[in-house]
Specification:
Among the domains are: 288-456 and 520-539, Isoleucyl-tRNA Synthetase, domain 2 (Alpha-Beta Complex), CATH 3.90.740.10; 761-920, Isoleucyl-tRNA Synthetase, Domain 1 (Orthogonal Bundle), CATH 1.10.730.10; 947-971 and 1038-1114, no CATH class. Helices cover 43% and strands 14% of the residues. The chain is built from 38 helices and 34 strands. The strands form 9 sheets. Strands 8, 9, 10, 11, 12, 13, 14, 15, 16 and 19 form a 10-stranded mixed beta sheet that branches. It has a 5-stranded mixed beta sheet with strand order 33-32-31-30-34.
């Protein structure tokens, strides 16, 4: 075995291959047995025909879990695998609890990604030939890029580009990717042969290719999916298409879907809204609203004027406005100048009755928002560098000072706002520092000092905390020295905005004396009404569509879901409040989403999907048709028998018969229906839905909380009766691979198929269970998967070997190790059951595999040392229980053990999860742990005694040795006292507060008490129960137990380095606190002298924690 830069390399795969052979065998058996096909109790059953869903669930418990169905533009990767594993483990466990546990899985094909990729391939085939044989070399591509760059520079009237200095603009990430620039290359990276890539130019081919691979990959890891219920989305499946049409109709009828102009993230290239699922990057980003301030240019700077004069058709009768985008229109009273960047090129755009100066990017956004004369036209009349505008005289609206100018600001960026920034130094820390710098370094910036020397920082907002010059006060308090101090300025900006908005009062203007949070909207409305401002939107961050387009914001006539409607939102909150969310962070994330979520475009014109029933020129977007598919799972297997709905299902119902009335009957329990479908068939469909619903848990990545999962809640409460609202959502963290972020560009990436091929199914599942269960990022560690191979194989070999033996002990159990192992197995079983119930699979794995095996190993070694060997009944119990405990996580291995080694005739998948047959006797567990602890103390004492100190050790292992065990019969008085103190502080929640603790401890006791309490805290932190930690009495008779240990020779067997024949004496002394003598437990002799030079060992001997002395015999 060796590590490489691309992951773990397995050098010897014989063990893995043996386990994989078992897995393949049992996957075939399960398929033949239809193990995972789960149905509701038949409606034809006389016993259940009149039962309500609640009565059915009582008599026939069920569990239904699902994951966000994967998108069919590629194969499943490790991240999908991680989410799938959570469903798998829950289904496996609930199945063993006697429930009809259903795991359905569909294939998402809606939206634009598949069609966009297919269209890219069409273009590439046109460019490079059917098999891409005419693809230019990388050198040829570089030459083409150089020519484009030179042409662009010429158009901008720039100097000639030096070809020797040209560099292709390739990011580090792109450089690491190598090829992959074209869609056909990406397809080849998915493992598709070059000559087959052309088939994917037809979008329909994707829908036929990837779903089968998805099923194959899921089956390879042993997924318990009922594949009868699988389907693809879009109108390719006419049954699902009818279902989504019903959903849309019901939501429109109830006023949930509306029509109107909405600001929407938009792809000009695709000609439609770009929703989250359509994005290459920028998921979750929404339109940001600004106020566009029109700042009149009263006299252009000389250079700018010359350039304008050179434009023959420039209309000099029109006014020219710089357009500044601001979030704070109420601060316009404090304007002292307006900033542009000397490094940015600005366009002068003909806006009808005037000219606007802004970046082309900003004007492009405006052209799609009914701000400009012509939609989508954003060609500038002329382009001028920002440096040529510096010195331009301006007249900003509401400004209290005159003779203001355009000035330079180096930190202005072209990708945010309009590239024009109005300066309000009283309330913007950035503006304050830039203006100060301009005043101090006017020559450096190439400006006339007269332009800035008399500019005043005017107070416009009063605040309690920072006075009436918030920015100035903050910059001074935070010791900000320069406009380039970006970190401090960003923090100061946040503080200023929050303080001004929430506690500020207007100190000037029409709304003087009003709170800023009230005056802001009034002033904005006034400025828009008088024509000095307008509403402007742009994406709040970079959004790149799947087609590679840099998206904008467009004002679109569209159908949208009104998630902001208050009564609907209240129902969503009610549902959320009653759901099991498994982590408080998840609840907080949902509540945050509900706070901001308002409108969501439901339609698009490009892509795959279902047509809006009332407006068929539009398609239902991909996040809106994937909100209640879990309900469709419940009936799909009765309607059709293939992914595509081509083959009619067992009820003989055709897709065209699935009308809205039919879906109302099934999902909303409405009995008024007009249909030619048999009532028995309708009742069978309703029975399936009402039995498996409500959905017990939906499992997805945490990144889907702010869209998919929230829409899932909203749509369920809109369409289904309350008793069918979802019961739980589990949000996973992202999956890292070998403690690094998964990334195709770095090579740290694995598909599900690659994981299973490398480690096999069960070892992979164990590593997935061990990866983590919280909303924090989890980690798939290949070394854990590899270690699991060895662990399972060794367990298999041991089980096969020990079951073949005929020398295992029978008869009565011994009092210590047999009884202890039996009870400890029961204890671990109960604890493992609890962790599975809590969906803490990492803990369940630790207990049910690692701790369970450790218990077996200790038992095996302990009874071997006593010369008795293992008890047959306990060996059989261990093997069967181990298989049962591990079944949800490693089912193939466990079914092999259950059927082939233990000779059961049915699958372990149908077995009940083990439970202790009687309450666990804690005294037996404590007794066994006492023995372990004593043996550990002996080994530690031995190690210290043999450790060389200044060239010699305290004990010579070659000479005769005596072991003395000191057993305290009671706690010292001071320990009893402070044990009670610690117990009280723990109940008050202040035990970890040393300042409180020290007030309870006498000064003279401090040195001994603090270490004592520290040990108590360590035991609590390790998970030991408080009632055990703070109990000063053992649950067992310590003196009787240690006498039994003495008799079975377990004390001598604990030493490791000292030969057993060198142990010539062993004594166990019982010592009372403060006594100067001891009693031998071995000889019963009383009044024995205490060991000399062992004061510390004597003091440390307390009930349940004996001390050990090892010395040479003189």
């Amino acid at each position: 075995m060796a590590e490489t830069g691309t992951g773990l390399v397995l050098e010897n795969t014989a063990r893995r291959d043996a386990l994989i052979a078992i897995e393949k065998k049992y996957q075939k058996i399960w398929s033949e047995e239809h193990q995972f096909e789960v149905d509701a109790p038949a409606i034809t059953d006389k016993e259940t025909v009149d039962m309500t869903s609640e009565e059915l669930h009582e008599k026939y418990p069920k569990f239904m879990s699902s994951m966000a169905y994967p998108y069919m533009n590629g194969v499943l990767h490790a991240g999908h695998c991680f989410t799938l594993s959570k469903v798998e483990f829950s289904i496996g466990f609930e199945r063993m609890n006697g429930k009809r546990a259903l795991f359905p899985l569909g294939f998402h094909c809606t939206g634009m990604p598949i069609l966009a990729c297919a269209d890219k391939l069409k273009r590439e085939i046109e460019m490079f030939g059917e098999n891409f044989e005419n693809l230019p070399s990388e050198e040829e591509e570089k030459e083409q890029e150089l020519k484009k760059e030179q042409e662009k520079e010429k158009q901008n009237n720039a100097k000639e580009v030096d070809p020797t200095k040209f560099k292709a603009k390739k990011s580090k990430a792109q450089a690491k990717q190598g090829r992959g620039k074209y869609q056909f290359e990406i397809m080849m990276q998915l493992g598709i042969e070059k000559e087959d890539v052309k088939k994917f130019a037809d979008a329909a081919y994707w829908l036929n290719y990837f779903p089968a691979l998805c099923q194959e990959d899921c089956e390879s890891i042993g997924a318990k999916v009922d594949w009868r219920r699988s389907f693809i989305t879009t109108d390719v499946n006419p049954y699902y298409d009818a279902f989504i049409r019903w959903q849309m109709n019901k939501m429109k009828e109830s006023g949930k879907i509306k029509f109107g102009e909405r600001y929407t993230i938009y792809s000009e290239k695709d000609g439609q809204a770009c929703m989250d699922h359509d994005r290459q990057s920028g998921e979750g980003i929404t339109p940001q609203e600004y106020v566009g301030i029109k700042i009149e240019a009263t006299e252009l700077a000389e250079n700018a004027q010359k350039i304008v004069d050179s434009v023959s058709d420039f209309d000099k009768s029109k006014k020219i406005y710089f357009v500044a985008a601001t979030l704070r229109p109420e601060t316009m009273y404090g304007q002292t100048c307006c900033f542009v960047s000397p490094k940015i090129d600005y366009g002068i755009f003909d806006n009808g009755d005037s000219y606007y100066i802004t970046t082309e990017r900003a004007y492009k956004n405006m052209s799609y928002q009914k701000i400009t004369p012509q939609r989508g036209y954003y060609k500038p009349v002329v382009t001028i560098s920002g440096k040529d505008f510096i010195g331009t005289k301006i007249n900003p609206p509401l400004a209290q000072q005159s003779n203001l100018r355009i000035l330079p600001m180096e930190t202005v960026i072209a990708t945010k706002g309009t590239g024009v920034v109005t300066c309000v130094p009283s309330n913007s820390p950035d503006d304050y520092m830039t203006l100060s710098d301009l005043k101090n370094k006017s020559a450096y910036y190439g400006i006339d000092n007269d332009w800035v020397k008399d500019l005043e920082v005017l107070p416009i907002i009063d605040t309690e905390k920072y006075g009436n010059l918030t920015a100035k006060t903050l910059c001074e308090e935070m010791k900000i020295q320069s406009p380039k101090d970006s970190v401090k300025l960003a923090e100061a900006k946040k503080i200023a905005y929050k303080e001004d908005y929430y506690s500020g009062v207007m100190a000037i203007g029409k709304y003087k004396g009003e709170k800023v949070e009230v005056a802001k909207s009034k002033l904005k409305a006034d400025m828009i009404a008088d024509g000095t401002a307008f509403v402007y939107n742009e994406p709040e961050g970079l959004v790149i569509s799947r087609s590679g387009d840099d998206c904008i914001v467009s004002l679109e006539d569209q159908w949208y879901v009104d998630y902001g409607e208050e009564s609907w939102k209240a129902e969503a909150r009610e549902c959320l409040d009653h759901m099991e969310l498994f982590a408080p962070e998840v609840k907080n994330a949902f509540e945050g989403t509900l706070n901001w979520l308002s409108n969501w475009a439901v339609s698009r014109s490009y892509g795959l999907g279902t047509k809006l029933p009332w407006d068929p020129k539009y398609l239902v977007e991909s996040l809106s048709d994937s909100t209640i598919y879990q309900a469709f799972y419940t009936i799909a297997h009765l309607l059709f028998t293939d992914y595509y709905g081509k083959d009619v299902g067992p009820l003989g119902i055709k897709a065209e018969q699935m009308t809205d009335d039919v879906f109302d009957y099934i999902f909303q329990h409405k009995d008024t229906i007009n249909t030619d479908i048999k009532m028995e068939s309708l009742d069978s469909l309703r029975r399936e839905f009402e039995y498996f619903y409500p959905l017990d848990v939906s499992i997805s990545g945490k990144d889907l909380i702010n869209n998919h999962l929230t829409f899932f809640i909203y749509t369920h409460v809109a369409l289904f009766p309350k008793k069918f609202w979802p019961k739980g959502i589990r949000a996973n963290g992202h999956l890292m691979l070998n403690n690094q972020k998964m990334s195709k560009s770095t090579g740290n990436f694995m598909t599900l198929k690659q994981i299973v091929e490398k480690f096999g199914a069960d070892a992979s599942r164990i590593a997935l269970a061990d990866a983590g269960d919280t909303v924090e990022d989890a980690n798939f560690d290949e070394s854990n998967a590899n270690a699991a191979i060895l662990r399972l194989y060794v367990l298999k070999d041991w089980a096969e070997e020990v079951l073949a033996r005929d020398d295992l002990r029978t008869g009565e159990y011994d009092e210590i190790f047999d009884k202890g192992f039996d009870t400890e197995m029961d204890d671990i079983v109960e604890k493992t059951y609890e962790q599975y119930t809590l969906t803490n699979y990492k803990n369940a794995l630790k207990l049910g595999l690692f701790d369970f095996q450790n218990s077996r190993d200790y038992y095996r070694d302990s009874v071997a040392e006593t010369g008795k060997g293992m008890h047959k009944d306990l060996v059989l119990k261990y093997i069967e229980t181990q298989a049962l405990l591990l079944t949800p996580i490693a089912p193939h291995f466990c079914d092999y053990v259950y059927r082939e080694l233990l000779d059961n005739k049915t699958s372990i998948q149908n077995a009940k999860f083990p439970r202790a047959s009687k309450p666990v006797d804690i005294s037996v567990i404590d007794s066994l742990n006492y023995v372990r602890g004593l043996q550990k103390s002996i080994r530690e004492t031995e190690g210290q005694a043999l450790k060389l100190k200044k060239g010699r050790s305290d004990v010579n292992a070659d000479k005769d040795v005596k072991i003395t065990v000191l057993v305290g019969t009671d706690f010292p008085e001071w320990q009893n006292k402070y044990l009670q103190v610690a117990k009280e502080l723990h109940s008050e929640g202040t035990l970890n507060d040393n300042s409180v603790l020290k007030t309870k401890v006498d000064g003279k006791d401090m040195k001994k008490v603090m270490p004592f309490i520290s040990k108590l805290k360590q035991r609590l932190a390790a998970g030991e129960q408080p009632e055990v930690v703070f109990n000063n009495k053992t649950t067992f008779n310590e003196l009787e137990l240690i006498e039994k240990i003495y008799k079975n020779d377990s004390i001598k067997q604990a030493v490791q380095a000292i030969s057993k024949d060198k142990i010539v004496a062993l004594d166990i002394l019982a010592i009372a606190p403060g006594s100067d003598s001891a009693t031998s437990i071995v000889t019963k002799e009383e009044g024995l002298p205490l060991p000399q030079g062992a004061s510390k060992a004597i003091e440390n001997a307390v009930p349940g924690s004996p001390s050990v002395i090892i010395r040479n015999v003189e």
